[in-house]
Amino acid sequence: MIERVHGIDRHKQFSTISVLNSQGEEVHFAGACREFGKYVEGLGPTDAVVLEASTGSFWWADQIEAKGAKCFVVDPRKFRIIKDSWNKTDKQDARNLAKALWVHVVTGEFGIPTVYKPTGVVRDLRKLFAQYCLLNRQIATHKNNAQAIFVDNGIDLKKELKCRLFAAKSGLELLKEMNVSAASRVCLELTLQVLWKVEEAKERLAGEILLAGEALKSQVELLISIKGITPLIALAFLADVADIRRFRTLRKMNAYLGLVPRASNSGGKSRPGHITRESRKLTRTILTQCVHHVAASSESLERYYRELREKRGTGRARIAVIRKLCGMMRRMLLSGEQYRWIDRGLYEKKLRQYERVLKRVKEERPAA
Known about the structure:
- By secondary structure, the chain is an alpha/beta fold.
- The protein has 3 domains: 4-107, YqgF/RNase H-like domain (Nucleotidyltransferase, domain 5), CATH 3.30.420; 120-212; 216-344, no CATH class.
- Helices cover 57% and strands 12% of the residues.
- It has helices at 36-41, 57-66, 80-83, 90-107, 120-152, 159-165, 171-176, 182-212, 217-223, 231-241, 250-256, 282-287, 291-295, 299-312, 314-335, 344-364, and strands at residues 4-10, 15-21, 26-33, 47-52, 70-74, 261-266, 269-275.
- The chain has a 5-stranded mixed beta sheet with strand order 3-2-1-4-5.
- Strand 6 and strand 7 (269-275) form a beta hairpin.
- Helix 9 crosses helix 10.
- The chain is globular, with a radius of gyration of 26 Å.
- It starts with a strand and ends with a helix.
- 25% of the residues are buried.
């Protein structure tokens, strides 16, 4: 039985809290609670708490639920009482949250737009992938910087020369043979050294991602039966969608991944636009890199990709294949069946490599 309802507007330095009793009367108000951890310690099974989704909200939700209290994390963009309020203050937000939750819990007449709370494994994967994407952007920045310096010195790097220059084993030796100014040489040496450090960190992080997702190993082994899907790509997809069963249709999942085109309906005519690019984008970004391998996994898919590319262009064809691929992975996870056109030899090779990487990462980790 819920006896108290807590509406909390949480910030970095303090939290504004409004507490209502079972009759909807405010029995406590804290304008600036600076010891939120101690406040959580006083919660119990008779309490219900509502927070806005923000950085750290899921962690605090875990702490609150560990005390036996119910916790709701709402989407502030969909919570119109706060989103469209003309009097938006911390005090008013906390009271609006408490009142909305009281109506929802006590009377059941009003729903609040909560967000999905992923498991600890999925949250860890999302943190690691966020860092992985950051390192990828840094690598691209350093490579572009190096190429710009060469262009300033009248040197147009060819593909083969570029590969040798950016390789840690041959980069500095090759740079000595290049005709660049002294200042450019210093900049290039520093850029290459930083680039190799970032690439080393990225390689280590990839192993940590595989280890963090070991709890999802059975699903990973299922998805890598598709040609072009590696364990890292499979975990990126699983980190984005989390529980596949929460999407009732494929279109809802694709919309969540930002793969559904915008639609404009007017005068009885429908005009599809570009993809929304909203919500989570990790899957869309990573799958773009393996579209050609996936398309080559079956004759029908390869023909579909080729014909669409000739008709609508490479960009639209790529997104269409990604949508198909996401649909295939969704069906495989729901049915537990492997890819229909599986290459057994390649699949066994990927499994062995996956096991080797997991073993290596475990051995390299310092003993606790």
